[in-house]
Amino acid sequence: MPAAPAAARSIALSLALALPGSGAAANAWQREPGTSFLSFSVQSTVNGVDFGEYASLYYEYGLTNGLTLGLDAGRNLVSSDSSAIFFVQTPLFTSGANLFAFDLGIGVADVASERRATLRPGLAWGRPYTAPWGNGWMGVDATYAFYEGGEALGKVDATFGINHASGSLSLAQLQFAAPSGGDATFGLAPSHVMKISDNSFIELGALYEFRNGVTAIKLGIWTTF
After folding, report:
1. Which of 7, 75, 105, 224 has the fewest CB atoms nearer than 10 Å to its CB?
2. CA-based Rg of the chain, rounded to a whole angstrom?
3. What is the pLDDT of residue 156?
4. What is the rounded CA–CA span in Å between residue 187 and residue 158?
5. Mind listing the pLDDT tens digit for each residue in 7-35?
6. What are the C-alpha distances in Å from 101 to residues 8, 67, 89, 95, 170?
7. Between the CA of residue 92 and those of 95, 170, 192, what are the distances in Å?
8. Are 191 and 180 in contact (CB under 8 A)?
9. How confident is the model at residue 106 (pLDDT cuts 50, 70, 90)?
10. How far apart are CA 133 and CA 164, in angstroms?
C-alpha cells in the first residue's frame, strides 16, 4: 500500500498523539516502526447525570510501515464495567494530503451487566493543514462494535488539532455515539496537551454531552518510546 506523504508523516510524529486516549479508534496516521505510544487518563463527572469515573488505557506499537498494533481499554471505577479491545490498523490509500486507514479490533466488553465478545471494525480519515496560526491536523474516526448477543455501538469522532511551537497540542473533538436499542449521544470535548519533556505530556480536558447535559473533566498522561 502507498506510504503517507512526507509532510503527513512528519506531522504524524508530533500530532497524531492527540487522537487516542478517550476510547477513540486508531487515527489515520501509522505509528513509526519500532515506536510506541501509551496514554492513561481518568474522566470524572462534575455536573449532570453522574456516570462515575472512567479510566482509559490506550497503547499503539508500530510493527511495520503498514501495520500498527494497539490496545484500547477502559473501566468504570464505580460500576466496574470494563472493556478491552486489541486492534490492528493498516493504511488503505492516500489522495493528495488525505490519508485513509482501516482497523479491526477484537476483545471483550461488559454489556447489560454481562461480559460479551466484541468485534470492532473501523475507518479513519486524516490530513494535515497549514494556517496563519500554525500547522495542525484534522480527522474523522468511525467504528462499529458488534457485541455477542446482538447489541451494537456505532461511534464517530471528528477532531481538529493545533500544534504549538512549544511542542504542546490543542484539540477539539466532536463525539457521536449511537447504541443499538438506545438513544444517541453527542458531545464536545476540548483539551490541551502540555509537553513536559521530550517524550512526556500531560492532558487537561473537558467534555460536555448535550443530550444529558453532562459536564466532565479529564486528566491524562501520555508518553512515547
Report:
1. 7
2. 17
3. 95
4. 11
5. 333 333 333 333 333 444 458 899 999 99
6. 13, 10, 7, 12, 23
7. 10, 27, 30
8. no
9. very high
10. 9
